[in-house]
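Entry for the shared binder. Reason: the reviewer on the internal report wants the predicted structure included alongside the sequence.
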Amino acid sequence: MPSTLLAIALRAIRAVVTLLLCVTIVFVALRAAGDPAEQMLPPETPPDVRAEYRAAWGLDRPIPAQYATWLTRVVEGDFGRSFSDDAPAFDVVVEALPRTLLLGGTALFLALLAGLTAGVAAALRHDTFADRALMGVAVLGYSMPVFFLGILLILLFVLHLRMLPSSGASTPLHLILPAVTLALPLTGRVARFARTATLEVMGRPFIRAARAKGLGRIAVIVRHALPNAAIPLLMFLGIEVGLALSGAVVTETIFAWPGLGRLLVKSVTLRDLPVVQAVILTVTAIIVASNLLVDVLHAFADPKVELARTLGGGR
């Protein structure tokens, strides 16, 4: 137990440092890219008016001073106000967050359901035509760019078959195409990882011992193979959460899904720094928290290995 708590504490510290480093890089990069006042205000705006806006937005001070003020306010729960509509930046993010969580959660569920089924089935039929066919489809799935896949689904199910809507989020039908678009690449990665993990477990001595005791194939898989294959798969899913959120930026833009990804693209275009920073901070926090949760679960499952990996800096 002490080693488990130490591993969790070290991972938590690393998560906080990672979060702080990410938001710091984004904060500096956004300001180094140019003055938002020059891009948001009309070209004919008088210089004194521009100066007033820059002062009101806090852009007239050195970047280190801006960063110190922003970080202090974030700790107090103040993420600033949107440059474009003067609404609290965090409120704008909170309004879009449920849509992204719905899309990402649905896509992750579909990817797990289809990917685990395909991966385990391929492992059980190792070196057969079924194995090669399933893995071929998996490779095709995660090799296909999300933007191309989304456009292809729109051409098929919207323009040709006229079965589904192409944009918006007003009905459950609007969720189908973006969720499938986001899920297919994840499904391919889950399937390949599940196949590898299952094959590794199926070759271990305790599986042969279980078979020698007379347990049927299904019982061996359900009771012994899958629970042991779940540990590496759990670590893999922590990374997939981040990939799902990053893929949502393109997917939400293609299907006009009103989530964080579309909000981020819109805010970057408008140079709305407070909203961009709030979106990045929220997404980074979700990714870091999901990886930390996976690390905590893994630490309890295998404390010695997790402590060694933590101290050694590996995953």
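Summary line for the report: DSSP finds 13 helices and no strands in the chain.
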